[in-house]
Amino acid sequence: MTILEFHKALKNKKTSARETAISYLDKIKKENKNLNAYLEIFSARGGSASGGEYDALKQAKEIDEKIASGEEPGALWGVPIAIKDNILIRGEIASAASKILGNYVASYDAHVIAKLKKAGVIFLGRTNMDEFAMGSSTENSAYGPTKNPRDTSKVPGGSSGGSAAAVAGGLAMAALGSDTGGSIRQPAAFCGVVGLKPTYGAVSRNGLIAMASSLDQIGPITQTVEDAEILFNTIKGKDEMDSTSVLPKVFNRAAKIKTIGIPKEYFSEQGLDPHIKSELDKVINKLEKNYEIHEINLPHTKYALACYYIIVPAEVSSNMARFDGVRYGERKDAGNLIETYKKSRGEGIGLEVRRRILLGTYALSAGYYNAYYSKAQRVRSLVAEDFKKAFAEVDLILAPTVPTPPFKIGEKTNDPLAMYLSDIYTIPANLAGVPALTLASGAQLIAPHFEENRLFEVGKFIEHD
Ligand code: GLN
User: Fold this and answer.
1) C-alpha R_g of the chain
2) Is residue 156 one of the residues assigned to a domain?
3) What SUPFAM superfamilies does the entry give (predicted)?
4) C-beta 133 within 6 A of ligand 1
5) Separation between Cα atoms, residue 336 and residue 339, nearest integer Å
6) Domains in the chain, number
7) How far apart are CA 435 and CA 256, in angstroms?
8) Ligand 1 center to 138 CA (angstroms)
9) Is residue 441 part of a domain?
10) Is 183 a catalytic residue?
11) Which of 50, 95, 156, 174 has the fewest CB atoms within 10 Å around its CB?
């Protein structure tokens, strides 16, 4: 059931929040061992008794009691969702799928979690991910890979692979993920579900374990565009704890969508898998019935990946400094301070995260700062400028999300560059800060800042025949 379908059933008393939560928990109990989508379930019924503060079934019961007492249910009451393991829920572990945070219990709710609690959402559990959200396959988790429910020999994508797999496999009605360079959209495309990377600043990052703070955004992973819209409208908005978040009045500017741009650079023969191209062609044919289609140029696309892999490691090297076993993270005592740092970090932090700390520290070092970091920042402006120019010509952009279909588990683990390339079509939107929506078909829509409404309008047009 989608969120909308469930709500119809809930209002007509065809189901209850508790009954629905139980059916998900039972399915998780049966199937999660194989998929490894969840790292922990917030109810003993799901198989892993959490010992945490949060209890999904208790929350569901409270919702049912409110409905029984005659209250009109809000749009998300009783909706059972999965939460990526880097978003804090008070009293629960949030490990970012890292060993170093394996026992870290969140002392407060992330802003989005507080909002969803208020909206009556039920949290089923926390989902697997690439360690600290660095990766494209969920194989960088310290707790084993997640499998793609559509084909369990394949990866679900990443880094929000557990969330996407939970939604695609029917182990959650919807989920939250985070997207720094594609981590919501790429797994959504690999698992055949919907994923939204909101405009930078649309959703508060307070309570999200930071990866690259100038790019990170929390967003929904859902079965339909309508469901993504409902969740987004609930979590968006100003939070005084995140100075980059914006007031709601910047949203909902009315705009008539007439033209859709197809960026030439995203459809190059060498780069794009023919099956994905033919899926996209179908979408374009459909759009032609209602919109004008224009070819456009985003000329700096070819530099986006290189630029991202300077800026991200730079920010990562800074954000990861707090996980030293003293301020945060599991402490491994080793006699003196430096050895304790080394042991705690050496044992607690995985290889990909280490690679980025090293690259970022290098790129920020005195002799190389100008050559790498400053230059990458200038390239980032050029990528953003490309979108600005494009949106002077067209109202929306259509692009692929991924260059290839899901790859086999293990196929790219020894080739970081091949892994990085799977985000080639998602990274530019993060660098520019613009919102982007991936549909179950793998099509990606990109809109100007704070114009998520355009994504939903055209997304629904594509989704409905
Ligand atoms: N796969 C990309 C990376 O490894 C994106 C990750 C993300 O969006 N969190 O950086």
Assistant:
1) 21
2) yes
3) Amidase signature (AS) enzymes (SSF75304)
4) yes
5) 6
6) 1
7) 17
8) 10
9) no
10) yes
11) 50
126: enclosing H helix or E strand: strand 122-127
Give a yes or no: residue 375 inside a domain: no
Residue 330 in domain:
no
Nearest ligand 1 atom, CA 133? 9
Domain residues for 140? 3-249
Distance 160 CA to ligand 1 centre (A): 9
The CATH code of the domain that includes 180 is 3.90.1300.10
* pLDDT in single tens digits along all 465 residues of the chain: 999 999 999 999 999 999 999 999 999 999 999 999 999 999 988 887 667 889 999 999 999 999 999 999 999 999 999 999 999 999 999 999 999 999 999 999 999 999 999 999 999 999 999 999 999 999 999 999 999 999 999 999 999 999 999 999 999 999 999 999 999 999 999 999 999 999 999 999 999 999 999 999 999 999 999 999 999 999 999 999 999 998 767 776 667 899 999 999 998 767 899 999 999 999 999 999 999 999 999 999 999 999 999 999 999 999 999 999 999 999 999 999 999 999 999 999 999 999 999 999 999 999 999 999 999 999 999 999 999 999 999 999 999 999 999 999 999 999 998 899 889 999 999 999 999 999 999 999 999 999 999 999 999 999 996
Tell me which residue has its CA closest to atom 10 in ligand 1: 134
Is any ligand 1 atom within 6 A of the Cβ of residue 319? no
For ligand 1, atom 5, which residue shows the shortest CA distance? 181
Q: What is the pTM of this model?
A: 0.97
Longest distance between any two alpha carbons in the chain, whole Å: 71
Ligand 1 contacts CB of residue 424 (under 6 A): no
